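Integral inner membrane protein (Bacillus zhangzhouensis), 263 aa
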Amino acid sequence: MLEKDQEQVTSEMKNDEPTIDQETRQSRLSRSTAKRGRTSKAADDERSALQRILRGVGGAFKRYGSYGLAMLKSPSRAINQAETLRMKYAWISIVLFSVFFALGNYVQLKASKTRLLGFGIHYSFGDAFLKVSVFTLILLTLMMLTVWVLGKYMLKGNISLKEVIMKFGAALVPVLVLSILWLVFAMLNIPYVTVMLSVMMFFGLQLIAVVLFRSIHSEHEAMRGDLMYAGWVFLLVELVIIALLWSIVGEYLIPSLVPVRFG
């Protein structure tokens, strides 16, 4: 009788104990639940990171838009207000101008059936766009260095290179708008407008130098030198730079800028 009771107790304990299959199933369920939790958390983290990036990009566009509007309202006045000048926004303007100018030039090359020198259709996008954008960026950088050197040593103005870059980038905003319009009308293939915008962009860059020289001469107590001669030297240096880089100018810029007929 005692032996039967012991066997019954033993059998009940065995029934109460989970089998190996049950343990394996439970373990798999636990791992699956944990994996789903980790996956859900990773997805949430990715969404949060993406939202933060989008908010940051949107905020950056908004801040640069406010900066650009302030420059467009009165460029010559804004460059003399220290609180409106920002180094990063100046470089953004410089890079954006290089990009839009290169894009517009490429579109002009592709639509150059009304141009004098070449049709441009044999230029790949990467080849034409990269070379012209790098050329434009180099040209603008050398222009800023020239303004600083002439302002500091010819006009004897107490101005730093950083200040010249900030002012140049701020004054470049109206010319940046012209480059965007140039791209739009190049896509529409309207040579009347693109030629006028090309001339306006070129003279706009010269006006930037004049405005900066005037600012240096008036605000930094320039002791000697003449504004007119500083402007002539600046133009001479700019033409020398273009001459040194004529292989790019003659191959990629002239064919897109010189009109032969309209319509």
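Residues 85-257 form one domain. DSSP finds ten helices and no strands in the chain. ok done for today
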